[in-house]
Amino acid sequence: MKKALLCFLYIFVLLCAVFTEEVQQLIVPPELYVGDVGQLRYSFNTPIDFFALADSSYIKDDILYLNTDSSAFVSASGQYEVKEASLQRYGVTYTLLITFVAWQPGYINIPPFDLYEYCTYNSELDIKEPFTINLEPIFISSITEKTKDFALRPPVPPLLLPESKYFVLILGVIFFLILFALCWILIRFHFVIANILALKDKIGFMRNEGRTKKLLKSLLVKKYDDKDFASSWQQIMRSYLNNRFHTSFISVTSNNIFNYINSLTNGLLDNKAEEAAITLSSLFIRTDYIIFAYGSIDSLLLPAEEHRASFTLDERKEIVQKSIDCIYLFEDTGRKA
Asked: Is 55 within 8 Å of 116 (Cβ atoms)?
């Protein structure tokens, strides 16, 4: 009986030693100033399982997060601001962590609060006794009080990292150049737009010239009869003239090709361009005759060289070469302009 009583007393003492509430409060860093981020660490022992009582949505990585919008964590005077509050456990030892920022010097007093309530415990459980947390006041130091320097200091330029002034200088030069370019573009906006449009037209003329020359040369390779050759030549040259003068030549008759080109240029063709327009008009008339008189009775009239609706031996090559020469003269006039 005595042995059983001694064992009971021994176990009771051990339990009392384990579950005795040993409270420790620590501030990190030990000395805080206004505007610093500090952390209060409050450790205590208890057999209560707060994690089992809390809503699982508040627990993450074995850390129970408390509601920082609760009244104890909100300073009515704006003396401090609680950023985060959490509860960690190691067996029966709990550590309450409160991360905060102090906005005023002096003592901060976080009012006592019931940990059951702040852990958002299950309301269906019947908990009669509150578990009150009493935090000691926290002292916030003042830099001016410590240094005894109450005088206003002259403004100090911002500190720069080593060699960063060169980087800032380069950025300033780049910004100035961009600003200068924008101002120049705004001042000469119409001039810039005109140059862009002129460049666009020039590129278009070059493509039109190259494409037309390629198509003309392909006429000598393909096996066309004279009528198909003449018809294809007219389609190629009318397409060229459409793009060159930005207007349609589809309905312009062969006899009016020169007059139409002359009217589009307001009679300002130079001698070479005018000669090219005349040559081109004569080629249209010649190919018209091949197209419409091909196989007709008129093509059998004499003299044959004047009425024959077919090309002579090297006439196709001559037409292609004359067409390329005319194109060169038109484009050369445009380049000089």
From this structure: no
* pLDDT, position 234: 94
One-letter amino acid identity for 334? Answer: G
Positions of the chain with pLDDT under 50: 5-20, 302
Count of alpha carbons within 13 angstroms of residue 60, beta-carbon side: 5
Q: Residue 315: its pLDDT value, please? A: 92
How many CB atoms sit inside 10 A of residue 195's CB? Answer: 11
Indicate the length of the chain as a whole number: 337
Q: Spell 275-287 as b/e; 16+ CB within 10 A means b.
A: ebbbbbbebbebb
Residue with the two structure tokens 């200091």: 153
| Angle formed at CA 54 by CA 50 and CA 59, multiple of 5 degrees | 100
CB 319 within 8 Å of CB 258: no
Concatenate the DSSP letters of all residues of 283-336 into one string. Answer: HHHHHHHHHHHTTSSGGG-SSHHHH--S--TTHHHHHHHHHHHHHHHHHHHHHH
Q: How far is CA 120 from the centre of its chain?
A: 45
What is the predicted pLDDT for the residue at 312? 86
Task: Tell me which residue has tokens 């019931």.
Answer: 114
Which residue bears the tokens 């349609």?
Answer: 248
What tens digit of pLDDT does each residue of 180-195 get? 888 888 887 777 677 7
CA pair distance 331, 202, nearest whole angstrom: 10
The values of phi and psi at residue 141, to 5°, are -80, 160
Cα–Cα dist 58/54, whole Å: 7
What distance lies between CA 50 and its chain's CA centroid? Answer: 49
State the amino acid at position 159 in one-letter form. L
DSSP state for residue 134 in the 8-state scheme: -
The first and second tokens of residue 302, run together, are 């004499």
